[in-house]
């Protein structure tokens, strides 16, 4: 599409009350003092074709004023352009007329607005039809953008993102096509969720900072729990070591008891020898033919045997009493442990989750007053009301779910605590049963031994009575063999009395063994508790490790997303520059900057020879503006008049000679308004 402005006619338009016509050329210069109407010409041109002035606003105050400063009424505002459209001359006229009406009961007419009409080559066009005509010819928004650089520069100054979107649209750059050619960035749209790369990067970097703080916190918690776990392991190891030492002492006691068995054997051997000698002595008695002596010896032997039995019974009694004492102590200790477990279980089992907050949330009702706007007092629109209700219900459901989850966690922890207490109580009950069995056995043993002692003592007393009733022994003082045997027996019995049969030592060792077993039992209880604590800490450590790994993965995922978006931004903007910059010759667009840290930041800059547009001198800036409009037009296959304001700094010789577009330069001078062809 090629459009040239041939002429512009104005009548009753702003300061131009009388009909005036201005002719335009391929290179046109508009000059004059301020307030002479230079900008009026451009605004009139734009207003005719687009309905808007150069700055994109609706025209206001276009009606001329009379000498009194008031609007000049009942005068038609006429503006007309003659265009060359693809080689065909076309005249477009826009006419604004006032509407007057006579109010009921009044004699004077009153102003009732304005009507706008169009003519194209003398044919009438309604505003709607004219709008359709212009859209078929060239979109009014694009015409504004491509005809005066200030339109795009204003947008660029306000928002580089908006300027980028315009360039992408005008150049036909397609994000979908870019993603199709670069499938490695398929997830970008999911990450950005329709937001800009800049906003997305800000969000991701904030998330990264927050998640790294959470990761550091989880790392601290994990290291703390690991140090505590090491302490528990050391404590358990120390207890096991102490238990091993007590077991070694018990082994030493067992070794000493085995050594006592040898002493018992020696004692029994000496006692047997004495009995053998006494048997020989009895033979002498018998040979002497004395039945009395035989009877006395028999009684004496029985009494001696019974005394030995009683001595053994006394030792058994002492051992049984020690076992009974140890059993009593164990019963009391295990009863206390069992009672504590029962109390702990009773107290713990009564613990329940506080559902007060849950009930409060469930009881919450939607505030119907929120459906009324507090400022205007009107009922909010249905969409807002629906949104408020849905937001309330979603929040309520979420908070109820959180409370229900907290209840599940509480009940799980309570169940674990009850299981641990039950385990401790079961062991205490088992230990109590064992101690009670030992007590019962010891009591029965004592009763049995006491009965045996009584029976044996009664028999000894009876035999001693019989012995006392017997006459004195036969005089064997003259029997040398008898006397020698008697002497041997005396010596051996004396030696036997000095021998230790191990009974005292055995009792001592038994006491030591029971004491050591008590210590081991205490250590077992401590080890069991330590193992329970270790198990709990292990579960806690596992939970923290899982949370740490999850948080670490979250940080890694965000970092990966940042890397993807960064690389995407670099390559996308390179592709955008490759797409757009061939249309521009005096300057190039730069779409990417980098922070001090090296992070890409999307931008939109006009750069000429390495210098930002805003830092150029006046002449180069104006040449950039000319190049901007020309490039934007070429993107859209257009050739339209280019209007450049404040063009005093442009050297005519620097204007590209190969420009196809019509160029209209507006300059301020100290002279009257002039529209002339550039030399």
Can you describe this structure?
It is a single chain. By secondary structure, this protein is an alpha+beta fold. It has helices spanning 38-50, 127-137, 140-147, 149-158, 160-171, 175-181, 188-192, 197-287, 291-349, 356-363, 382-469, 480-498, 503-580, 618-635; strands at 3-11, 20-23, 27-32, 77-85, 88-102, 109-120, 123-125, 588-594, 600-608, 611-612, 642-644, 663-668, 674-677. It folds into two domains: 3-171 and 584-677, P-loop containing nucleotide triphosphate hydrolases (Rossmann fold); 235-522, no CATH class. It contains 14 helices and 13 strands. Strand 6 and strand 7 form a beta hairpin.
List keywords for this structure.
single chain, 679 residues, alpha+beta, Rossmann fold, 6-stranded antiparallel beta sheet, 4-stranded mixed beta sheet, 14 helices, rod-shaped
